[in-house]
Each structure stands twice: as structure tokens, then as C-alpha cells.
């Protein structure tokens, strides 16, 4: 990811009402210390969190000193927690581990100048492993003054109930077609490609931008087949996917996204038994991914287990 592609440097498209809600809460003087920003993958949850951070840190003007610091990731009162590189294995971790969360302690011990806000953004909070989640929970239980946490995740049920209870939930909806086109244009898509991707995005342009690559495209086809029809996984397609280091992680991410959306939709329809089944499958998939990564298990076997979990839901 280049600096210009980082969510902190990207404009926010859509979500005007939700941003206005946050601004109103800020202006009220009774701002909640924890916000859980949830919604489908690819709709701009992380961009939204950074937009809120700009309001808190007086960085809305991108050319101001604070604005430039936020875009560059160097603002002293802003900390981003996300998955990091596993230096031993030379690849991105599939979960946020305790070492990723420890810097928050030092960050919060730093006294912000002139009573300014301090902001912690936990991106893809659903990937927190147990130790990291418990460490974050302790911080949320006794937050310092003038500190706000933003957690992004696909659905609140992806996180510990104790963490959810300490956050204000803020759901983001999918984007309109025109907003989707704006995002795609910003990323250099034009002409026929723009029209095709905008139609495929279904309001989540980040998702089609990610799946516009070979590994992700293969994983998307597999995930769609497993989630929509419950078909057995295509052995050749799985083998092709596993030739890529991130193939298993991408498939798990897409399957998890689909299961979370299914659970939410079924619950909204009052089909609580079916929703519970989808939620259990989501939890099983997360556990499988964590264990596979943590103990370096055979991904050939793990990916078939993931396919079985999704197709049985």
C-alpha cells in the first residue's frame, strides 16, 4: 500500500448522515469514548474512522499541518492498530496480536498538548486474537480523558460482547451507484471498466477493487459458489488458490463477510434459528483461520474445512 492509497489519505465518499451524527455527538460535549463502525466490506469503514479523527484533531483541511500529518500517518495524537507483518515468516499476519496492541499503552501515557484529543483506530477489529482483544478491553474499560477509540468490523457479533458493550455502535450502509462510481474513478477506473465494476460492486466499491486481482477473483468465485449454492468446493480452483501465500486468508475473509451478512439479513427477517446457524458458522470459520495461522497448520486441509463450514451453513 502506498501512502496515497492509505485510508487516511483517501477522501470519504458517502456516509454524510453518519458523519453528521458523529459531529453532533462531538459538539454536544458528551462524546462516547468507544465507537464500533460496522458494515459490509468495501464501503469505507476505515476511511470513515479517519474522517472522524480529522474532526477531533482539526485536520479536516487536508493542507493544514494537522491534515498533512494525518494523511502521512505521522500525527502524534493518532494511532492506527492493524495486522502487521510477521517478520519470521515474511508475510502479513492474519490476526492482530498482543504485540500490535501494546503500543497503545505508551501512546495513552503521552499527554496531548492543550487538552487535545487522542485517537486510536483499530482496523479490522474482528481479527483481534484473544490476548489482543482482552488487552484492548482493559483499555476500553478505563479510557483516559480526551481519548476516543474507533473499531471497524463487518458486524458487532464478530467481537467480544464485553467489547461491544463499551462501544457505541454506528452502522454504515452501502454506497449509492454514483458514490460507488466516484470511488472507482478516484482509483483510476474509467469507461467500460468503470461501468462494469460499478454494477458488480453493489455499493461496496472497495470489495471489487480488491477482487480485481487474480487471487481475489478466484477466491470470490469459490466463496460465491459455496455461499449461494452450497456446492462442494472445486478442487482445481482450491489448488490454484493455495499456490498464493494469501489465498487461504482471502477465501476466509470473503466467506466470513458472506456469513456475517447472511446472519444479519436473516435476523432482520425474524429467522432467528437460521441467523444463529450462520453466526455459529462465522465463529467457526474465524477459529479455524486463527488456529491455522497460529500453529502453521496444513492449509490444504484447512481450506477444505473452511469450504465445508460455509457450504453447511
From TrEMBL:
<dbReference type="Pfam" id="PF13177">
    <property type="entry name" value="DNA_pol3_delta2"/>
</dbReference>
<dbReference type="InterPro" id="IPR050238">
    <property type="entry name" value="DNA_Rep/Repair_Clamp_Loader"/>
</dbReference>
<protein>
    <submittedName>
        <fullName>DNA polymerase III subunit delta</fullName>
    </submittedName>
</protein>
<dbReference type="InterPro" id="IPR027417">
    <property type="entry name" value="P-loop_NTPase"/>
</dbReference>
